[in-house]
Amino acid sequence: MNKHMILYRGSLKSCNYRCSYCPFSKHSMPERALEKDRIQWFSFVESVQKKAKTLHIGALMVVPYGEAMIHSWYWEGLAYLSAQAELEAVGIQTNLSFSISDFLDCFESLGGVLEKLRLWATFHPEMTSVSEFSAKCKYLAEQGIQICAGSVGVPENLNLLRALKQELQSSDENGQGIYLWVNKMDGLGRSYTQKERAAFVEIDPYFERELVSVSANAALCQGRLFVEANGKMRTCNISATLNTGKCLEALEAFPNPECSRKQCSCYLAYGGREDFMNQILFGPYPLFRVPRRPKAVFLDIEGTLLPNKETTNVPAGIMAGLEALAREKIPLFFATTLPYKKAMERCSKIRHLFVGGVFAGGAHVVFHQKQEYICVLKAAWLTEIFSLQRKFGFRVLVYREHDKLYKVTLLRPLHRFWDAQEVEKLMHCISFGDEGIRYFIEENCLQIVSDAADKASGTKMLCGWLGVPLNETVSAGDSEEDKKMVNCCTKQSFPKYG
C-alpha cells in the first residue's frame, strides 16, 4: 500500500516575476504578511514531523500562490522534512528564479536529503529564456534531484516550447532527458485546433490527458490531503472543505474524502487520484509529475482496463494514458485470465496499442504473434470432470490453441458463484494423478490450468523475450490472481473504481 501524500499551500500570494497572465504578479506582500507565512509554514512542518508516522504520510508537495523558493524559510523547511525518515519525497512548484547555489548550500547544511527532493519547475517565457531555464533544470538534475519542467499550452509559444524540449532532452544519453509537460490554457477562449493539439502532444506525450474530461470520484482520493496555512483541509485544491483545525494536529487518520465537483479540472486534481494509470505513468506519487518510464507494462483487463464485465468501453483517462505510453514506445501487454480470442474481443478498441500478453492465467503467452508459449494440460482427468457436471451444476468449456489443451473452465449460471467448500468437494472426486494443476475461482467460473502457469511466470517470460529486467517494469490488476505478478514487477497499487 502506498503512503499518503499531502499538498500544502501557505498564505504567500506574491511573486518576483511579472507575467501578464498571472494574478499574483501584480501584488507584493508587506514584511508582516511574509513573517506570518513563515510562522505558518514552520508550524506546518512541525505538525508533519509529529504526525508523519501516525498518519502514514509518505510525501509532501508545496503548491504556492506565487514563488516560495525566493524565501529561505521554504529552503529550511524542505530540508527538515526531507530528513524525516517516514517521508519518501518532498517537493515544491517553483519558477527557478532563486539562487540555486545558495539553496543547495542551505539544504545540505541542514541535513537535507537531495535524493528525496522533487522540483516542479515552471517556464515563463516573458521572464526568462530557454537557455537560462534549461541550464538550471539540467544543473539541478545533475545534483541528483528529480525534476520536471512545464509551461502553459499557449499556441503562440509553440516554437519556444519546441526549443525547450530539445534542450531538456539533451540532458541524458538516451535522449529522454527531463520531462516537459504542457498544461491546457484555460483562458484560450477557444478549443485547440487539431494541428495545435498534435504539436503539443509532440512536445508532451501526455498532453491529451489534459484535454480529457475526468469525472470527479471521491472514492479515488483517499490517499491525499490538501492543507492550507489557516488549518483548512480538503481532499484536493478544488474540493470542499473537510476539516478546519491547527494544521494536522486534530487528525488521527486521514478523513474520508468529500467532493461536490463534477470534473477534476486540473492536474493537481486528477493527477493525485488513486488511479492505476497515474501510478503507471508517474510512480507512487504522481503529483510530482516525474515520468516513471518503465521498460514494459502488464495490465489486467476486467476490473482494471475495463471497469466491469458489462462494458467494452475503456474510461477516457485510461485510454489517454495508454495512447501516451504507446507514443513513448513503451511495450504494453495484457495480463488476464481470459483466453486470447476472448481478450481480443473484449479489448477490440485498444488491442492495436498492445504487443502481446499473458492469457488464460499464464497458460498462453504471446509476443507480437511471432513468439508463443502454451502450457499444455495432459488432462487424462477430463472424462471424470464431464461425468460430474450434473452433480455439481456446471458445464465444461475446453480451451485449445494449435490443438493443445491449456485451460478448462467449469462454468455455472451467472447467479451461482463457486465457493471454496464446493470446490474442495469437487476436487476430491477427481484423480489428477501426477499432473500438477492449479485452480482458482472467478465468480461463477472455476478455472483449471497447469501449476506451471500463472501471470507472474508469463510476465517473466515476456521480459526474457524483450530482454528487459523485471524490476524495470510495472503491472496493475485487481484480484488475487494479479498479486504475484504485481509483486514481482515494480510494485503497483490495485485500481479502484467507484
Overview of this structure, please?
- This protein is α/β, with parallel strands linked by helices and 498 residues long.
- It has 3 domains: 267 residues, Alpha-Beta Barrel (TIM Barrel); 117 residues, Rossmann fold, CATH 3.40.50; 69 residues.
- 31% of the residues lie in helices and 20% in strands.
- A 9-stranded mixed β-sheet has the order 8-7-6-5-3-1-9-10-11, with helices on one face. It has a 6-stranded mixed β-sheet with strand order 16-15-14-13-12-21.
- A hairpin with a 6-residue loop joins strand 10 and strand 11.
- Helix 2 packs across helix 3 and helix 4 packs parallel to helix 5.
- The radius of gyration is 26 Å and the shape is elongated.
Give a short overview.
The chain has 498 residues and is of the alpha/beta class. 31% of the residues lie in helices and 20% in strands. The protein has a nine-stranded mixed beta sheet, covered by helices on one side. A six-stranded mixed beta sheet has the order 16-15-14-13-12-21.
Keywords:
498 residues; alpha/beta; TIM Barrel; Rossmann fold; 9-stranded mixed sheet; 6-stranded mixed sheet
Strand content: 15-25%
Count of DSSP H/I helices: 16
Spans of at least 5 consecutive residues whose pLDDT stays below 50 are none
Q: If strands are numbered along the chain, what order do they take across the biggest sheet?
A: 8-7-6-5-3-1-9-10-11
Coarse morphology: elongated
What are the SSEs and their pairings?
Blueprint: E1 4-9, E2 13-14, H1 31-51, E3 57-62, E4 65-66, H2 72-82, E5 89-94, H3 100-109, E6 117-122, H4 130-142, E7 146-152, H5 158-169, E8 180-183, H6 194-203, H7 207-211, E9 224-228, E10 232-234, E11 241-244, H8 267-270, H9 276-282, E12 296-299, H10 316-327, E13 332-335, H11 340-346, E14 356-359, E15 364-367, E16 371-374, H12 382-387, H13 389-392, E17 395-401, E18 404-411, H14 420-428, E19 437-442, E20 445-450, H15 455-466, E21 473-476, H16 480-488
Parallel strand pairs: 1-3, 1-9, 2-4, 3-5, 5-6, 6-7, 7-8, 12-13, 12-21, 13-14
Antiparallel strand pairs: 9-10, 10-11, 14-15, 15-16, 17-18, 18-20, 19-20
